[in-house]
Amino acid sequence: MAPNSSLFAVLFAVVFVPATISSAMAEDLVRSSCMHASFPNICLRTLSSYSGPAKTPRDLAQAAVKVSLARSRRASAYLNGVVAGEGKGKGKGGSKRERAAASDCVEQISDSVEELSNTLTELKHLRPGTFRWQMSNAETWVSAALTNDDTCLDGFKGVEGKVKADVKRKMTNVARVTSNALYLINRLDSTRGRAGMDP
């Protein structure tokens, strides 16, 4: 019986201990990377629970862009519903003015989705010879997505109602995760630059 328990202990150590160490290292990477983000609690919460492997700063930047992209798509689906007059209650999708503002917002968020998708593609294909150029592209696209988020909210100035409150909540959330994604991309760029190396 003793040899079986020894074998179990060895198997446990070989299988579970490296996974535990790897998990702890990923948590440390997330924690240390999110510490100085624009919205550190949101960064920590969204990236700690992210289901992909984040073993490097590059993985983490990609994960942050994926979170931003997913939130942007959800906000876009909501806004498309408002434009179509879908919704609950008497006002359905909101007033005519709310639907017009939402329609403008759909265009802005569509641009953001495209820019974040471009960013994700760029981050997945970083190459030593073009690293700086690719990082500049990624930073520009994510900055443009942030501008689109702000422009969407600006379209609701002077509009009152539940739709405006919902849009503000959703777009603020999108802007915060996008801001964190930009921070992690900038961090990846500056870390590589300080080390004087490319990926």
- Segments where pLDDT lies below 50 for 5+ residues? 10-22, 193-199
Q: How much is the average pLDDT? A: 83
Count of helical stretches: 6
Number of strand elements: 0
Helix content: over 70%
Terminal Cα separation, in Å?
50 Å
| Major sheet | none
Radius of gyration: 21 Å
Question: Brief description of this entry?
Answer:
With 199 residues, the chain is mainly α. It contains six helices and no strands. The protein is 78% helix and 0% strand.
Features:
disordered C terminus, elongated, single chain, mainly alpha, 6 helices, 199 residues
Could you explain how this protein is built, in words?
It is built from six helices and no strands. It is mainly α and 199 residues long. Helix 4 (96-124) runs antiparallel to helix 5 (131-154) and helix 5 (131-154) packs antiparallel against helix 6. The chain starts with a helix and ends with a helix. It is elongated and about 60 Å long. Mean pLDDT is 83; it is low at 10-22 and 193-199.
SSE layout and pairing:
Blueprint: H1 2-34, H2 40-48, H3 57-83, H4 96-124, H5 131-154, H6 162-195
Helix pairs in contact: 1-2, 3-4, 3-6, 4-5, 5-6
